Amino acid sequence: MLNRIWTLLAAVLIAAPAAAAEGGAECGGETACRIDGGLYHLALPDSWQGGPAVMFLHGYGSSGAKVVANSGLVAAFTRRGYAVIAPSGLPWKEGKPADWSVRDGWNTYPRNDVAFLRDVLADAASRAGVMTDRLLLSGFSRGGSMVWDVACQAPEFAAAYAPVAGGFWLPVTQDCKGPVRLLHIHGFADKVVPLEGRVIQGSEAEIVQADIWEGLQLWRRENACASNAADHEVRDGLWRKRWKCEAGGLELILHKGGHGLPKGWSTLALDWFEDLER
């Protein structure tokens, strides 16, 4: 009888939307989870019993709260059985918008985000049974750039990476720490983060978005991919290239739009991710 009670109690704890947060408050949905270093939001599928997750990094000036408030984005993942983890960046300087510690030559950002994201993932695993070995790290714009940086600096952090409309900034690293499985999605007509990069003149400093093609060349080297794509596909307004790689994997999807999340991108990303697991 005692063993049965403990089994039932464990099941209840796993199925809970989120365990007690710091200070005893519950978190999940609109209520942020607080850990040392910052906040994140967590959205779980119905009847959640633990499982895979998508960690999504917001764009410049946004937040994890705004990510989970995007019901369409969240539902696209949760209805396929994925938890959504939405960390929040910090202002890069007092009074400035939220950002990420993207490697771009600035030295004002107050947090090591690779370490922070590790702590977020560990906390989500403890609270809600997120499977750390079945994590897809995604992000948009500046968040997409952070995805590239995490993939480069800590390739073992996620099972795969799916950045959208964001890549390396100068100075571009010339050597990452290992191969990764990466799907990059970008708008052919993107003027905010152009495929060929651009210089941004600001009051604090001049920073430069690197050429996406140059970044993809680095990933081809890191994954030991053939120089030419092994597979090309044009369908439904999307241009896809897949490289055959000795380690990891690399795919590019271009859509005809500008700086945004293209319609159906989450389905493309999850289909790609699940194909990797088969």
UniProtKB/TrEMBL annotation:
Keyword Signal applies: yes
InterPro entries in the cross-refs: AB_hydrolase_fold, Plant_Biomass_Hydrol_Est
Gene3D superfamilies, A to Z: alpha/beta hydrolase
Signal peptide: 1-20
Keyword Hydrolase: yes
UniProt superkingdom: Bacteria
Alphabetic keyword roster: Hydrolase, Signal
Full protein name: Polyhydroxybutyrate depolymerase
Organism: Leisingera caerulea
